[in-house]
Amino acid sequence: ADSYPVTTGIACSSTLSGNTINVDLDLYVKEADTYRVTVLLLEDNITGYQNDGGRSDNNYVHNDVARLAMSSLSGDPVTISEDCQVWSKRYTGTVRSAWNPENLKVLVYVEKPYGEQGKTKGVSSAKYGNYGDTYIDNCRAVKLGETAALELR
User: Which of 9, 17, 93, 98 could form a disulfide with 28 if both were Cys (CB 3.0 to 4.6 A apart)?
Assistant: First the structure.
């Protein structure tokens, strides 16, 4: 938290009408910069095959399975030219009939360039590689049909 203080806040809501999902996103940005926003639809409680170290299980329950990228998988670029701005966007997608709406949720995450902060190269017991030019500044998950109000820390 000291090395990478959070500079964004996320509020979002999602609705399902027929098989169309709408995600309304408000991104509150403290510092002007170019961010990347990724919006994914995830599903929980999918029962299926899992190979667990040589043991197989046909009734394994999978959670957080990505079903739909509503943005670019590498994130949509969002350029904020002034400090303390709000960026809003609606994302739309199609929910397939095989997916259970009661088990769906939306995940939003925001990446920020390292900039002058630099990359943390190591902590006593961990080793870090080169993971690119951004880090995840903030994220939010909300069940389909619900609202995640803004939380600022």
Answer: 9
The alpha carbon of 104 is separated from its chain's Cα centroid by a whole number of angstroms, namely 14
Cα distance from N-terminal residue to C-terminal residue, the chain: 11
Give phi and psi for 91, each to the nearest 5. Answer: -105, 140
Q: How confident is the model at residue 71 (pLDDT cuts 50, 70, 90)?
A: very high
Print the SS3 string covering 39-86. EEEEECCEEEEEEECCEEEEEEEECCEEEEECCCCCCEEEEECCCCEE
Q: Please, are residues 35 and 29 in contact by the beta-carbon 8 Å criterion?
A: yes
Residues 21/41, Cβ–Cβ less than 8 Å: yes
| Confidence label for 107 from pLDDT (cuts 50, 70 and 90) | very high
CA-based nearest residue to 101, from 39, 21, 47, 24: 21
List beta partners, residue 90.
Answer: 24
Rg (CA), the chain: 18
The pLDDT of 72-95, averaged and rounded, is 96
Average pLDDT for the chain: 88
What is the distance between the alpha carbons of residues 64 and 96, in angstroms, rounded to a whole number? 16
What is the reported pLDDT for 52? 72
Question: pTM of this prediction?
Answer: 0.86
Tokens (6 digits) for 3:
């090395």
